Amino acid sequence: MTAFTIQDVARRSGLTEPTLRYYEDVGLIGPVDRDESSGHRRYHERDLDELQALACLRAVGMSIEDMRTYQSNRTRGPAAAAEQRDLLLRHADRVEAEIAAQHARLAYLREKAALWDAREKGDAEAEAEATRRSLDAARRLEVAR
After folding, report:
1. Domain boundaries, the chain
2. Residue range 6-59, CATH number
3. Exposed e or buried b for every residue in 10-36, given b needs 16+ CB within 10 A?
């Protein structure tokens, strides 16, 4: 059975060594096997599979508690399918809301830039229109917070 060092696993998973140790400490993975002579962690393919899933969940902003639930549901298999789906859809909704908020921020910045562009050009009509649009964008920004 191939064993990987913590450095190997960090490179393969994209998780830092401190994160790998933390995930073991909080029970998301492991306990990880240890080399008998050195005491260093030795990871196996099954560990890599789990860590890659956790790296993806971390990348989408899932909390440690929800990652723990996800891992528990994985081991339960089909019996936890509905719970697993609901957990993932809740996070998808959160990400979708974050995207909408980012779009509102982007629209506000673009409208304010257009306003200042009109001012630079001395175009009063374009400035008035850009002012109206930037106020609309500011209202959407307040809703997105």
Report:
1. 6-59, 85-144
2. 1.10.1660.10
3. beebebeeebbeebbeeebbbebeeee
Nearest CA-CA partner of 115 in 125, 103, 102, 101: 125
Could you tell me if 112 and 136 are in contact, meaning their C-beta atoms sit under 8 angstroms apart? Answer: no
pTM: 0.77
Condensed to tens digits (0 to 9), the pLDDT of residues 106-142 reads 999 999 999 999 999 999 999 999 999 999 999 988 8
pLDDT higher than 80, residue 47: yes
Query: What CA–CA distance (Å, rounded) separates 20 from 40?
Result: 13
- In 10 A of CB 126, how many CB atoms? 15
What is the H or E stretch that residue 126 is in? helix 124-144
- Phi, psi at 83, each rounded to 5°: -65, -40
User: Which pLDDT band holds residue 92 (cuts at 50, 70, 90)?
Assistant: very high
